[in-house]
Amino acid sequence: MTDSSTKGRWAWRTQLELNTDNNNLPNKATPFSSLCEEIEEDLLAIPDKANYVHYSHQGTIGRTQDGGLVIEDDEGILVIAAEPDMDEEINEILRDLAYLNRAEQQQLRRADKMWNDVGRKVKKGGVNFELATMYKTKDKKVLPVHDSSVIPHAVEGRLDWQERARTRQPPNTDQSWRQFQRFIEDRTAPFLKGTRVTPERLQKMKIAEWLWPREKEMLIEVFHCREAALSFDFPESGRIHPDVVPPVRINTVPHDAWKEGNFPIPRKLRDEVSKMIQERLGRGVLEYSKSPYSNPWFLVKKKDQGYRLINNAQKINGVTVRDANLPPNPDEFSEEFAGCEVVSLIDFFSGYDQVELHESSRPLTAFFTPSHGLVQQCTLPMGTTNSVAEFVRVVTKILQDLIPHACMPYMDDIAVKGPKTNYGGELLELGIRRFIGEHIMNVDKVLRNLEMAGATASGFKSDWCYDSMGVVGYVVDRQGRHPAPKKIQKIAEWPSCTNAKEVRMFLGICVYYRIWIENFARRAAPLFELLRKDSIFCWTIEATASMEDLKYRVTHAPALVSINYDEPLGLIIISVDGSKKGWGAVLQQEDPMGRRRPVRYESGVWAVPERNWDSGKHECKAMLLALKKFRPWIYGVHFIVETDARTLVDQLNRSATDLPGALITRWLALLNMWEFEVRHVEGKKNVVADALSRRPEPEGWTPPEVPEDDVEEFIDKQLGAISLTSNPMSHWDLEFTYRTYAVDLSVLDTLYTDYFRNIATWLLTLKNPDGLSRSELQKLRRAARKFRVIQNILWANASPGRPLRRVVDNVEDQQKIVASLHDESGHRGREGTWRKVWHRYFWPRMFQDVEAFVRTCPQCQLHTAQKFDEELHPTEGPNGPWEWVTMDVVYMPDGLAGKKYMVVARDYMSGYAEARGLTENSSAQVSKFLKEEVFSRWGVPQKLSVDGGPENKSLVEDLCKLYNIQRIVASAFHPQAQGLIERGHKELTGALRKMKGNWVTNLHLTLWADRVTAKRSTGETPVFLMTGREHVLPVELSIPTWQTLPWDTVRDTETLLALRAKQFEHRDERLREAVDRTVRLREEGKEWFDAQASLRPSPMTIGDLVLIKDVLQDIDMSRSKKLLPRWKGPFRITRITDKGTYLIEELDGTPLRATFAGNRLRKFYQRASVELGEILEPNGALDAGELVSEGSPLQYQEDIPLQKQRQGIEVRIPVKQDFRREDFVLYEAEEE
């Protein structure tokens, strides 16, 4: 984001390239992104108004009132403010853009209102305005080559370069410096005193005002004596002598030469650029070239308003072999100066130009200039991947005899130390304090080394003798070390974050200052929670509180000192505490006044498994982690550890009565390697460490799943051993260490993939694999502790109830093992098969692989007794009586006149039944029954539900077609679809069974009894719902009821009809109530069934392969069929009705005419490698030997718990042959 304060800030962008070739005009408007690929460096500003050229629908480019260039599109706004005399260049860019994009004159127009709106958004922070800088993001950097086969040139230069430099220096004849001859070395400059350090220049040099006059005189005398080591202008710049370091080479891999185009130079800067190049040619920084290479270059404005010429080295970096030399760690570097009474910061004068480049490497740096043609660099180029490494090496060699007691170099800055005491005001001589004098002598030594090496420092840019100094992002003074005010201001003004990227940026700068923040890990926990991969970003109150807390802690940070190792050594104390939540520690040192001064704070939180430990383990690991963190500061010195854990103190002092466990014993072994004294302090006195470990957790925060520190790896390194679990199988001759036998690592290549090969290699050689990050190495080592290598074979460690298990990393071997232990071991289920494999072998995701193999076993699927139900689909209620009729035929004993079948029809609304005995189960007699007993008595229904038997086809079908009746056929072996009539069979046959005589004779009486009996589904009798009145029962004749009383008041027909009408009106009300009751009970029945049934875990879809239940095999349990498959198939689902019935086809596309209920089908799981043509004949079994299970992913994780339910891997087989609806008849079965 930016606002009006952006004016005056400089940003770098490469220049906008415009193609004005008339022969290559684009056919349509050029996209904004391609036009703005490269934009030159210039001032950024936000003008009030602008004139625009609308060149396409994607964006806008135009002029600001002050002459700047403005570009706007969906990605944001870029403003390049013009300097004076740039109108012509800006107008040229606009004209070219308009011409290239076919912009006509009438398209040029004012856009004041739009720009005002945009300007307001920018100022309010509503537009994402990206300020470009000189630094590329990581993804845009060109990385060097990591090629260890290319042998770099050896580091050259002479070790006796200082002696040789002294012999080259002329004798000194100027005796004016003799007043400080006891403190300053002789002047050796080859020119007259005051040639460079003139009174005018002294006025501009940055010398601390707090120096006493005599001290300032001494410092100025140093400047005159070391005048050859100071530069104020480019002609005075030095060149490092070859004795120190010979010309630097750029080591590259074989490559082809390149030729890159130049960035256009701003016209107003062309004369200045020409002078700059001419001046560099004169100084020997550049030279004319015949190189086959050509690199682009550009200018960057410097702080002093000058320009720096930058050679774009991206092509060079792409072929350069990396130099791993690094500058010092900023934290350690700044800590060296914490507590110094006085500090100076010496800045090299154009340091890279003082290091000569080897003649063989100069052609790589060539670039073309309009005024001087092709030139190449003679000195170390900026921007190349190894420039920093080379320059750090050179400066370190120059100052080697002064590091670290007198100075510390960091890149092109040399920080000169002063004493960490003022010696109580002691004077070196009259008018010169001792600590100031010692510091000025250090400055003289540093400049003397630079002078002998031929290097020069900047007289204007260096800071001399300050009591407070900014060093690599920190401020150091006599009090200690503080965060830099500018950095603190950025943190204090940081707004609330809107995404994870902004949180990461904020935490990045806070982590830089975490040593100042007590309990940083716990304070920042809510912000770290927002960075989890599986979390949705949501800025919470806890995150706001955490951010404000960190801001306050950084802006009010205490001064941290560095440990003073001079004698007498001040007492070094570590206060440590561990609690149920985490741990905290503070490193301190007592000053001469006996005050404890903090050096740094550290803290952490326990992972989820660690939180269940007892307090003894918490305290012991807290101490171990604290010593690990503070190890660089306490190793080799005596220190004191303070803790409130009495038991731990006794264990370390060997006065404990109870023996510690194995884990704590291992930790104590490492703790005893340090030279320290442990003291017990009460918790209320251990304030800081106790607060660090017990700070309340933010609401909603969860601890990490794994420990943040790999302490076991640290213990392994210090104790010099690998943690190995003992092997209970004593009959094996185990070789526990890699040193006891020869190692042939080539065997591992044939057995394992990269992951397990890296584990085995690390166990055998203790060498880290190449190409892994630090976090990946920690994970690898943590995983490696669970394995061991025996005779070049990797084994998973033994545990209680489980011996060593061989690691199998080959997919084919994994499949062979599972197939053998399943197919040849009785086709046991998932748990049994997995147990067999798990007890003998190990590989990641073993449980899922076994589960998938067992699930897809054809023989197991064809013979399993398990089947699933599906949810019921209640039918809708009919609108009137006898609109929907359901019919079925029941087999009966032989009756009168040869009748041995009973056909029954029921009304769906009332449950009213009609029935007749039949001599044969034929469609002729069934259709006759329908016409005589149903149609002629109750009318023609709209729907007729039947099963798929032959008696319901032929003439019955013709009868339905004749009267346009919808014929609904239920699925076979699915009585739920005919629930109303199937339940009625039990009532009728039960009554007939209890009555004396032939069932044919008793049928009508049984029907009458069924009709006058109330049904649970309706709450009414069928006869009342049909007639509006209840039938008079025989008992009512002997004991009269309301229905049998005479209607004496009825005298005429009109009265009778009125009473009958009221009866039927009452009947209709009760009929509606009966329908509602029926629908409600059906829904309740569905809920009950679905709750207690074994429902299918996942629905079947069209295209799934299924097996059909062989129902007859369940009925016929004779010995000949006892071992036959319970299922047939596989088949393929082609259609699913909304009532839960399925239409299926053979695998060759032939459809089956019948419909199937879901409880007769079972999903068939096909192994991935089996093609459709490999499946045997329809309804036949599959040969398990022809199927190959799919491979398992090779990702390490823990074993899968036995009882954890997992979904199997479903493989879809595509439909080979499509079918048309007209190819066969579709029937829809209704379920109740």
Automatic annotation (TrEMBL):
GO terms for cellular component: nucleus. Keywords: Endonuclease, Hydrolase, Nuclease, Nucleotidyltransferase, RNA-binding, RNA-directed DNA polymerase, Transferase. InterPro entries: DNA/RNA_pol_sf, Integrase_cat-core, Integrase_H2C2, Retrovirus_Pol_polyprotein, Rev_trsase/Diguanyl_cyclase, RNaseH-like_sf, RNaseH_sf, RT_dom. SUPFAM superfamilies: DNA/RNA polymerases, Ribonuclease H-like. PANTHER family: PROTEIN CBG26694 (PTHR37984), PROTEIN NYNRIN-LIKE (PTHR37984:SF5). This is Integrase catalytic domain-containing protein. One of its GO terms (molecular function) is RNA-directed DNA polymerase activity. Residues 877-995 form the Integrase catalytic domain. Residues 281-476 form the Reverse transcriptase domain. The keyword Lipid biosynthesis does not apply. Pfam families: Integrase_H2C2, RT_RNaseH, RVT_1. GO terms for biological process: DNA integration. It comes from Alternaria arborescens.
